Amino acid sequence: MRWSSIVGKVQVALCVTLCGFMWGCASAPEKSADTVVRIRCWTMWSGGEEKAFQAVLDRYNETHPGVRFENLGSVNDEKTVRALVAGAPPDVFTVSDPSYLGALAANDAILPLDDLFGKSHLKTDDFTRASLSQARYNGKLYAMPYLVDCIGLLWNKKVFREAGLDPERPPQTIEELEEFCRKITRHGSDGRLTRIGLRPPDGVNLLALYGGGFFEPATGRITANNPRNIEAATAFKALMDAQGGYEAVQGFAAGFANEQGGYNSFYVGQAGMAFTGQWNTYWIAKYKPDTEYGVAPLPYPAAHPERKGTLWLGGNFFCIPKESRHPKEAWDFLVWTQSLEAQRLLADSLHGVPNIRAALKLRSLREGEPWRVSFGKFMDLSDSSNATHFPPMPVAALYLSEINSAIEAVGYGRKTPEKSLSDTQERVQREMDRYR
Amino acid sequence: MRTNSRKTFLSREQRLGLWFISPWLIGFVLLTLYPILATLYLSFTDYRVLSPPRWVGWANYRELLLDTENFWPSLGNTVFFFLELPLALILGLALALLLNQKLRGMTIYRTLFYLPSIVPVVANAMLWLWLLNPEHGLVNTGLRAVHIPAPAWLASPLWAKPALIVMDLWAVGGSMVIYLAALQGVPTSLYEAADLDGANAFQKLVSVTLPAISPVIFFNLIMGVIGTFQYFTQTFVMTKGGPDKATLFYALYLYQNAFQYFRMGAACAMAWLLFLVTLAATFLVFKTSAGWVYYEGER
Amino acid sequence: MKHKTLSGIAGHIALIALSLLFLAPFAFMVSTSLKDEKQVFTETIQWIPSPIHWENYPAALLSFPFWTYLKNTLMICVGTVTGTLVSAALPAYGFARLRWRGRDAMFYLMIATIMLPAQVTQLPIFLIFRSLGWTGTFLPLIVPSFFGNAFSIFLLRQFFLTIPEELSDAARMDGCSEWGIFWRILLPLSKPALATVALFAFMGAWTDFQGPLIYVHDEAQYTLAIGLSSFLGRHGGQWNLLMAAATVVTIPLIVAFFFAQRTFIQGIAVTGMKG
């Protein structure tokens, strides 16, 4: 082969691939042999929860002839994003990390649902306060919640008793939390921690307690370093120092299993308290049923009593890609997930809190086995007016990770709260400005 | 034939050579050259993955070079990790020297030292998460048994990187085997000559063994430099860059930009900077190699 | 001689001590994999658990489709090894045994690509395979290996350099073509080096993490490495199950190594010789 002809062929190949690269190609809809419309549904659930979710889908398929939802489990958000980029998305998918929502919406990858919502029988008032608001970006609705995760305070009554505290009274204020931590923390003869007061929480949870806020949607201004947030970061450091310092606490906490499993530091009473979610009520019953614990709202700063009753919410959402082949069928399914029957099935099998107000009253979710009583406590708290969440925004993933590392830097004493949060402010604002 | 009558663009030898290397050459153009150029183009755009790229000039590069929060620390962490190279060199060579004795059972020892390097990366990451568990892991239980203060390893900003280095050194068998092969290839005549000069073991090591195997040391060094710049899977599985960004390595931050923060343009700029830095570092090693790498008789 | 035996004993002692150090993590892995939760979290280490909990293995294996993952991984491995062998030898010959203008420039270009961070090419390559409709199949994981892996070519070239030029010259005198020399003389002499390259390719594909992570969509197509990492996500902190899974994934490699170690280490011996 002549060199010049090689060059020519290579050029052709380059052009072809370049075209493919720049414009992409829409995949033609597949025609299924039967008349049943097959809906490809990607979900984050894996293992036992995947089976539970499948059962919910089965129920829908049974009661809705003409469509068949086919579930692919264990899909993480990155994979969904890649499929969206590749122009080969599923027809409907779950977002496991709500911080992806804003970016998907800002980049026009998912379908705005306001029209469909308006035409359906759903009403905003049916939803708990902080569920739909998590799915709105720039005034438009981009996702449907189907369960919320609700972070509150769990305290171990046995540990409280041992530390000389009233086992029926959780800390009310952050100041009290710090004092309790001091009382619960124990060191062994060699100086090593043997028990801590509070399992180290995510930085962002602590910021939520002070209500400083993260973002002003009207002006597009990031507010990472507002005075409240700086107070919160200072309090975080004080909390960790009360238990022997952040590094010691982190090392101690890392010695245990993560959330799931019996050897959770909170379950076994080596951490007296934890900021954690409703799923623990079920897991404790499953892995360590003899744990005596209570559920309370997160503590509030004594100087800001209006923050009383704060809860931190995360969400589980369905989105419909812009390029979904069956948006209509997907939407019908999303409407169904808001029905009492679906909310009960989902909450019962996936151990999340329903996002439809009427479903919060379902007795079958809060009565029966003893753990359901604690679960019911979470359901009661979830619609509180101080239930709050991270604002949906295109840079949420970056912002969250920057906040958590900023608080970490404060915890380890590498930076002052002011410096740390101002750095976050500057960095995230710069990124946010690209979206205006 | 017509083509032969004209003055051809390539000589017969060149055409033959190109034909032989064509599998690589085609792959190079399609799977390397074109992607690199595409990446270069994207590095000058604001590319949020889901919407088309928008030209922004040098903005990505400028922003990265001014970023003292993530970019420079990630480069710093990666440079810190170069500490592993001399340690791996010394340990690998020491093991190889031990194994290069005429003793019985050497193949068994060799196999044992080599085994850690064939453990799959993810399994290895899982194993070391457990070994380095501050409370119940083998490492700290062992340290406490001999009354050495046990750090929190992956939970400590100070000790997280050393922990990863220890983990990598466990798999030093890979380079050990190469050193061992090199040692066995050193001509015995050289040692005999040194014996005649009355050299002791250390002198023989410094003036015979090391120069003789210097090409292999050089080879391992180059591969080590390249591997360090691309260090990813372990931190991705084990630490996600924490604690306090202590294990935020360059390749991990690049990945986060690309797939988590929707900053593909910046990620492409990072990839290009990484390419340039790697080239520079390798070039440096090549330059200095003239002073200490000896090739017998060749070139 | 007395002196010799003494130093021999010292050598053995040093080697045994080091072996124990290198083996301890394996022992800890296997030991943990046979414990229940109570036995895992103890103050002092029990190397031999009592009672032994064999059930962790079926539990770990049943909680993910191990055999499917194994089959997928092996399919990719076989494809990759084939591709690497087919496409590495020819260019290596072109770089080692032929003299032509531009060869060294090409060679250094190829060496430079070893230094190329995968990230520089990752996204465009993904988009190429997408436009071919290959995402969701094993093709993007296998096909690139048919285009000459630079590292394998480098290793083979180093080996070809060690084969005396006289052999080729004699064949050329007899009128043998370059292809004939390559096929009939060089390749048969290069079996150990080819075996090494095959092993490297096999191990690379066996442990590859990012490739399947990006290209494989369906759980039925997961490889062991991906399956293992999702297993880690699901069972974080259940060290006994995690260690059982890690043991199961590691053992096939150890077995393969025991069978192949002679060729393997000889191959490295020759290929690593000259830089």
Feature tags:
heterotrimer; A: 436 residues; alpha/beta; D-Maltodextrin-Binding Protein, domain 2; 19 helices; 14 strands; globular; disordered N terminus; C: 275 residues; mainly alpha; MetI-like fold; 2 domains; 14 helices; 0% strand
Task: Describe this structure in a few short sentences.
With 436 residues, chain A is α/β, with parallel strands linked by helices.
Please characterize this protein's 3D structure.
The complex is a heterotrimer of chains A (436), B (299) and C (275). Chain A has 19 helices and 14 strands. Chain A has 436 residues and is an alpha/beta fold. Helices cover 45% and strands 15% of the residues of chain A. Chain B folds into two domains: 2-66, no CATH class; 71-292, MetI-like (MetI-like fold, Orthogonal Bundle), CATH 1.10.3720. In chain B, 68% of the residues lie in helices and 1% in strands. Chain B has helices at residues 2-5, 12-43, 59-66, 71-80, 84-99, 106-114, 121-131, 138-145, 160-170, 173-184, 188-196, 201-229, 233-238, 250-259, 264-292, and strands at 45-46, 54-55. In chain B, a hairpin with a 7-residue loop joins strand 1 (45-46) and strand 2. Chain C is an all-alpha fold. Chain C folds into two domains: 2-53, no CATH class; 59-271, MetI-like fold. In chain C, helix 8 packs antiparallel against helix 11. The mean pLDDT of chain C is 83.
CATH architecture of the largest domain in chain B: Orthogonal Bundle
CATH class designation of the largest domain in chain B: Mainly Alpha
Q: Under the CATH scheme, which class of the largest domain in chain C?
A: Mainly Alpha
Structural class of chain C: mainly alpha
Which CATH architecture of the largest domain in chain C? Orthogonal Bundle
Which helices and strands, and how do they pair?
The complex is a heterotrimer of chains A (about 425), B (about 300) and C (about 280).
Chain A: H1 3-23, E1 37-42, H2 48-63, E2 67-72, H3 77-85, E3 92-95, H4 99-106, H5 114-119, H6 129-132, E4 136-137, E5 140-141, E6 144-156, H7 157-162, H8 174-184, E7 186-187, E8 193-198, H9 203-210, E9 215-216, E10 221-222, H10 227-241, H11 246-254, E11 271-277, H12 279-287, E12 293-296, E13 311-319, H13 327-336, H14 340-350, H15 357-360, H16 363-366, H17 371-382, E14 387-388, H18 396-411, H19 417-433
Parallel strand pairs in A: 1-2, 1-3, 8-11, 13-14
Antiparallel strand pairs in A: 3-13, 4-5, 6-11, 6-12, 6-13, 7-8, 9-10
Helix pairs in contact in A: 2-14, 9-10, 12-17, 18-19
Chain B: H1 2-5, H2 12-43, E1 45-46, E2 54-55, H3 59-66, H4 71-80, H5 84-99, H6 106-114, H7 121-131, H8 138-145, H9 160-170, H10 173-184, H11 188-196, H12 201-229, H13 233-238, H14 250-259, H15 264-292
Antiparallel strand pairs in B: 1-2
Chain C: H1 2-33, H2 37-40, H3 56-62, H4 66-96, H5 103-114, H6 118-131, H7 139-142, H8 150-162, H9 165-173, H10 178-189, H11 191-207, H12 210-215, H13 224-234, H14 239-271
